[in-house]
């Protein structure tokens, strides 16, 4: 197992955002985490990366090592990277600099150059915009930079937090298609999405979260096929 | 004095302001703190340099180079000991603490080195020479040259190095920087250290002209602050240009209008800028794309 999460809790003051979540994830799998706003999805991802603002309890084992309580730089070095919700690009830095910062913890320069080329092949639009400030790009292009920046860390586990939020339909398709492309490189993915149907179409497994708990788990194909589940837990998407 | 020689000495003065102004901007961008103690830390660092000169037979140029690590250490220690423990406190508390730094360093320098002015050796000749019919002091030219070289090195650091880029990234978005594995607490120490180094350089550059005493930097930090505001306070090049303009304007005002009012002139200028162009003279209104 690449990732094993056991009885994970995240508390913000008196408020429990993640309430005893357990799951495991094999290498190369794509897991969709679905649920309404405030269900604890982002809190879960932040805990995995070690950037949680709250108190994290339970166990997070990554490649067999307990990483709960480790600093984010240690976790990034161990192979987890995130494309955060709202993209959080370095707006005044160029696209090239944003990508470089994604690989900040790496020292293998030659491999970084290769990875950068691969990422630019994946997002040809970015190649034309390398020296442009990231803040001047369109929303879809910014999302590509955010994903590319995370990939520059050469992660084994990629966390995608709401990658299609606020994007035009064309870009949503493009970003979603990318998930298949990335997993094809052997990278394990956890994707948090509001757009349940689209996420289920690309994932192997799905967890539905409600008030900090996983209330439903299963294969993405089964879950996507059941209209009742989709509408009951995931609203109109 | 001719206009040109006034401009040169104004630029030298502006260079001193710029080193301090840039220090303030670096600290503010990286840690959201305006450090009112920065000038006093610079003065304290200059006294440390003077002690180093007196206690050892180190050549002057080496002692001036040594200001960089001295200033860095001073800034880094202040960040770790004073600022780090209160980084999550309300902004006003932090502000009061940096005012506290002002008084601590000011008094400490007085207690250790006394309250009388000390002569400080100059790397450059203080007597004017004539270059192309313009009377200038080598000291002015030297100050401008040192400040410009330091600024150029700073530019290379921020634009071309991995650490410089990481510091800019962390200043823009601390949360995202953490997510990329940048240790933002190290960025904070580095920013305070870097600012410390720049400020102590400015103090040892001005000390030969004004003598070194514990009040030396009081007006200079205010001018550096003012010049940085003139430049928008968020852009390093803008702050440098703002400080240079302030130095020249103040010198010309002092020569042609009134010497006694030249300090107030600087502040009238700042109040006007804050009233008319609060984001600085050089910042064009950027439309933000969502």
Would you identify the CATH architecture of chain B? Orthogonal Bundle
Q: Can you summarize the main beta sheet of chain B?
A: 2 strands, antiparallel
Which oligomeric state applies? heterodimer
Q: Biggest interface, which chains? A: A-B, 30 and 19 residues
CATH class membership of chain A: Alpha Beta
CATH topology of chain B: ABC transporter involved in vitamin B12 uptake, BtuC
CATH class of chain B: Mainly Alpha
Number of strands of chain B: 2
Shape summary of chain A:
globular
Ranges of chain B where pLDDT stays below 50 over 5 or more residues in a row are: 285-290
Instruction: Order the strands across the largest sheet of chain A as they lie in space.
Output: 6-7-8-3-9-10
Q: For the terminal residues of chain A, how far apart are their CA atoms?
A: 31 Å
The portion of residues assigned to helices of chain A is 25-40%
């Amino acid at each position: 197992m690449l990732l094993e999460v056991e009885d994970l809790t995240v508390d913000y003051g008196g408020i429990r955002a993640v309430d005893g979540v357990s799951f495991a994830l094999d290498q190369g799998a794509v897991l969709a985490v679905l649920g309404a706003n405030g269900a604890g999805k982002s809190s879960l991802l932040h805990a995995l990366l070690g950037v949680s603002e709250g108190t994290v309890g339970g166990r997070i084992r990554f490649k067999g090592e307990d990483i709960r309580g480790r600093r984010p730089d240690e976790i990034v070095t161990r192979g987890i990277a995130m494309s955060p919700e709202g993209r959080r690009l370095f707006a005044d830095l160029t696209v090239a600099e944003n990508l470089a910062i994604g690989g900040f913890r790496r020292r293998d320069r030659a491999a970084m150059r290769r990875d950068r080329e691969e990422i630019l092949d994946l997002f040809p639009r970015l190649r034309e915009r390398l020296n442009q400030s990231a803040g001047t790009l369109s929303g879809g292009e910014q999302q590509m930079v955010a994903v590319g920046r995370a990939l520059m860390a050469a992660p084994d586990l990629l966390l995608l937090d709401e990658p299609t939020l606020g994007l035009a339909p064309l870009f949503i398709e493009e970003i979603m298609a990318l998930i298949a492309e990335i997993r094809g490189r052997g990278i394990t993915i956890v994707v948090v999405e509001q757009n349940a149907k689209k996420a289920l179409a690309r994932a192997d497994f799905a967890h539905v979260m409600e008030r900090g708990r996983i209330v439903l788990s299963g294969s993405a194909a089964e879950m996507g096929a059941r209209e009742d589940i989709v509408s009951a837990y995931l609203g109109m998407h | 004095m001719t206009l040109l020689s006034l401009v040169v000495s104004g630029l030298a003065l502006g260079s001193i302001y710029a080193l301090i102004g840039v220090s303030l901007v670096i600290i503010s961008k990286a840690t959201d703190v305006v450090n009112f103690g920065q000038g006093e830390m610079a003065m304290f660092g200059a006294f440390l340099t003077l002690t180093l000169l007196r206690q050892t037979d180190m050549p002057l140029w080496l002692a001036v180079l040594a200001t960089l690590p001295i200033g860095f250490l001073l800034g880094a220690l202040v960040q770790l000991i004073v600022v780090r423990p209160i980084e999550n406190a309300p902004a006003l508390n932090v502000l009061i603490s940096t005012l506290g730094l002002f008084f601590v360093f000011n008094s400490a320098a007085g207690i250790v080195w006394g309250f009388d002015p000390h002569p400080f050796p100059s790397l450059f000749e203080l007597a004017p020479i004539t270059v192309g019919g313009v009377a200038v002091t080598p000291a002015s030219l030297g100050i401008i040259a040192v400040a410009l070289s330091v600024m150029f090195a700073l530019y290379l650091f921020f634009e071309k190095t991995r650490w410089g880029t990481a510091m800019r990234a962390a200043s823009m978005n601390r949360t995202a920087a953490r997510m990329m594995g940048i240790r933002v607490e190290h960025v904070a120490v580095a920013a305070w250290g870097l600012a410390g180094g720049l400020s102590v350089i400015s103090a040892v550059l001005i000390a030969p002209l004004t003598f070194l005493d514990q009040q030396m930097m009081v007006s200079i930090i205010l001018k550096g602050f003012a010049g940085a505001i003139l430049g928008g306070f968020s852009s390093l090049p803008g702050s440098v240009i703002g400080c240079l303009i302030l130095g020249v304007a103040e010198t010309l005002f002092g020569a042609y209008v009134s010497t006694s009012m030249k300090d107030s002139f600087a502040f009238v200028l700042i109040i006007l800028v804050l009233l008319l162009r609060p984001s600085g003279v050089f910042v064009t209104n950027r439309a933000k794309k969502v």
